[in-house]
Fold these 3 entries.
Entry 1:
Amino acid sequence: MLLKVPSVDWTDQIIYVVDDDESLSDFDDEPDFSEYMWMENEEEFDKNELQRLEEEEIMQECFEAMIEDELEEQINEWEKAKTEEQNTALSALPKSQCNVEKSVLNPMADEFIPRSHIMEFPAS
């Protein structure tokens, strides 16, 4: 089939050749649904995707638990080292400074306040 289309200046005409077989075959054949074939397995796809998301969530929880365990272990090691350091410092003190049993100080006495810090206000 020949189609004549007028040009812009109407002096020349453009001729288009259209193949009749191609134009008719588009309407006679079944439509192409190949791009929609993924919908055939939509339920399986959804199931697999949900399973993947659950696995990622479980992996994230495990990762966070692992980090928390490592932090707790580091804190325990730090506390243990601090305790050992304090014990070492206490054991290095002379025994006379640590012996409270032979002390002559009264543990029930009031707090000592030097006289220079007591403020006396004149009576008015």
Entry 2:
Amino acid sequence: MADYESAQRAPLRLKGSGAAPALGKRKKKKAAKDKSKILEQIVSSKKQEEEKKRALDKRTPAQLAYEKMQEKRDFNRHLDALTEHYDIPKVSWTK
């Protein structure tokens, strides 16, 4: 045991870390209240944005449905006008 009396009994210090960390001090984690407040703010802001969008849009549900179907029809007409680029071209290797 006499050989170990000169050994250091404090925690080891790493280079560049400054002083040794205090044993009794730890960072406190954010409380669940803070997280719940943040979530409530996010949800409320999303609801407010949706309400603003609805307030600006004065169309009835029937008008919205009609316009949605018109967009689908126009898109289908556009696709019909395009060439069929997904078809495999006929290639004859024997000729």
Entry 3:
Amino acid sequence: MMICLPNGTVVHHINANYFLDITSMKPEDIENHVFSFSSTFEDPSTATYMQFLKEGLRRGLPLLQP
């Protein structure tokens, strides 16, 4: 999965296999908490995807400033 700017610049990406692996693990088994599970969502896939999108926005917004 990739988050790109309109000009094609990739600001964030995650390998689909890694995404599937990380969402199939128990939260306490995850060493890298970049994609940690949120208590807002019960589904680990949804929580991880939301974290992915938030990180993409965090990385991409400074590039859109004039």
